[in-house]
Amino acid sequence: MNWFEAIFTAFASPLFYKLTILSALPLIFAGIGGVYSEITGVTNIALEGIMKLGAFIGVAFTFITGNPWLGLLLGMLGGLILSFLHAYVSIEWSANQIVSATALILIAQGFTGFLMRPIFGQEGQTDFVSKIPTVKIEAVQNIPFIGEIFGEISSFFYIAIVVIIGSWFLLYKTPLGLRMRSVGENPRAADTLGVNVKAIRYFGVLMSGILAALGGMYLALGDIGQFQEQMPAGKGFIALAAMILGNWNPIGTMWAALLFGAAEAMNIQLQTLMVLPSEIKALLNLLPFVLTLIVVGGFVGRTRAPAADGVPYEKE
Amino acid sequence: MKSRWISFLVPFLAVMVSLLIAAVIILAIGENPLKAYGAMIRGAVGSRLSWADNITKMTSLLLTGLAVGFGFRAGVFNIGAEGQMAMGGIMAVTVGLSLGNVPSAIAIPLTIVAGMAGGAFWASIAGWLKAKTGAHEVISTIMLNWIAYHITNYLVAGPFAVGAGVPKSPEISQSAQLPSLLTVQASSIPSSILLAIVAAIVIYIILEKTTTGYEVKAVGFNPYAAEYGGISISKNIVLTMAISGALAGLAGALEVMSVHHRIFGAFTSDRGFDGITIALIGQNNPIGIIFAAFLISSLRSGSNAMQTIGVPDDIIVVIQGIIIYFVAADRIIRTWIIKASQLGKKKSPKLLQGGEEE
Fold first, then answer.
1. Distance CA A20, CA A17 (A)
2. Residue B271: how many other CB atoms lie within 10 Å
3. CA separation for the pair B358, A73 (Å, rounded)
4. Which residue from A minimizes the CA distance to B326?
5. From the CB of residue B183, how many other CB atoms can be counted at a distance below 10 Å?
6. Which terminus of chain A, N or C, has less C-beta within 10 A?
7. A117 touches chain B (CB under 8 A)
8. pTM score, two decimals?
């Protein structure tokens, strides 16, 4: 099959759209996590590390308890604890948030590597564990084309819908959302109006930890059913790019994540539809990273970060 | 207490505290931390072979540490030393492969310059994006790391591929290889360490004695004031990234010229990231970075020995993470120091405001 045929075949098949959605899931969770944190004024470039630790803890506890849902819950708790470390020094001690987040990435990487042998007796990757089950809906399965995409799909898909709509509602339709945005734009003014800046920022950062861990766990517990050391392979940073392209808005982030997901899906499809030499495969793997570079380079329209993003706030 | 003392004490205490926390973690998996640290020290400086290994590792760590530290001084967070090192290696191999019978006196400098240019170019992309469009250098340099990683994989599986087994490039020509400084049986100390130390001194002189260094520091200290003072921020950001990338590129070139004589996938093995820890421990001071690089290379060479007695070497990454965490939160440590010094005498030094000194 030549390139043109392969690309056309990909676009015409339901599998491409399913892969797009599934590839977008980890970016949606982590990206919206980034929105929570940055909208309250704390940058969190440690999403990559939180995804990794969340995925590992999720798999480890699924391995120990045999229950993937319990693994999922404890993985989210792991993400919460790791992001608390970031929140604590960023909010209480005005730490350099980029440096602190870099520390978290290393801590997550070190811990997962360190605990691999004591728990699983091997390095590189863990044993396979039970996955979070997929959801099958007979009525949908019978619809042509659509049925092949949504008929049977990972539970994480439905969790994502709740997260997207819930986050949009929370941020734009509730008093808490209004406070979060005001703290991210002008913490001094918010403080004067009696908003508890610290508490709101803690909430934002901790939410980013929970959601990024969910994103990591989709890769481990939703997709392949094991943890691998090279996970999440840059997806935490691509999620940040999705957040920027999505203009720090949950719905926008979802669309941006779907765009990155489509690039990934096309990569997977081309590699299965065509017989490609290994060096060409290596080049195709470049696509999502080049796309991200173009996005953060601002070549796809201008976006605006919350004004107080990354700026520590101190009372006088 | 003098502020100079504090800026030395903060990273020192960060290292000590992280070693303590790591000891607790080692205890938790049922190993003896004293035995583990003993093995680590022996592995790092216990024999001639371990010294040779240590100094070989230190060469590239010193340079990536300088690369990150130089960026920090200009307020640029160059997290892309990893990719710049890879590009330096790629350029050094490209040139080193084609030199044939050119005498070493020409071949070696040419290969070095090629490596530095490769790193400088790669870093400049992120610098240019930041200056032109405001793209955050952290995300763009991370992306450039991944792109460089995949380019290396492409080259060693395609155009450069040679032999069977692990995808790798051919060896560069003999004349472009750097000789060893000292060889005793199996242990040899590469001469590249001298070049790395010279680089540290040159960067020190640039920062402390030249107009360029003054401008770089001014932009890092307060970009708005610097611009008001007639210094172009965007020009300085691109220049800083280029110099920073050239240092990381030099690390890649020297690694190729004196250790492997070729490239393969992931030959940078995270040394670009280690550069971040080193720059922070060395407080972005080139001379401090020499010592920090030795510390981290000792931890790295020592961790292999620790592995043999059953403590996974990833504990070193945890230690690095905790060190960075405490350097980020240096106010916590400053507060400890103040409390400790107040226990001694009933004075209250105004150290807390010293967050931005120097």
1. 5
2. 26
3. 46
4. A100
5. 11
6. C
7. yes
8. 0.89
State residue B231 phi and psi, 5-degree precision.
-95, 130
The rounded distance, in Å, linking the Cα atoms of A99 and B334 is: 17
Distance (Å, rounded) from C-alpha B297 to C-alpha A259?
42
Sorted by where each begins, the domain ranges of chain B are: 46-298
Tens of pLDDT, residue by residue over A258-313, are 988 998 888 888 888 877 777 777 788 888 888 888 888 876 656 677 888 888 88
Calculate the dihedral angle through the C-alpha atoms of B266, A98, B10, B14, rounding to the nearest 10 degrees.
-50
Instruction: Give dist(CA A67, CA A217) in Å, integer.
Output: 14
**Segment (H or E) for A135:** strand A134-136
At B17, list the tokens.
């505290």
Using an 8 Å Cβ cutoff, are B217 and B73 in contact? yes
Distance of CA A308 to the CA centre of its chain: 23
- ipTM of predicted complex: 0.89
Domains of chain A: 1-297 (1.10.3470)
Preceding amide of A232 cis, omega within 30 = yes
CB contact B150 to A (< 8 Å)? yes
Cβ under 8 Å to A: B residues 261-290: 273, 276-277, 280
In CATH, the number for domain B46-298 is 1.10.3470
- B123 and chain A in contact, CB less than 8 A: no
List, in order, residues 6 or more apart from A9 with CB less than 8 Å away: A1, A269, A273
Q: In this predicted structure, what is the pLDDT of residue B355? A: 43
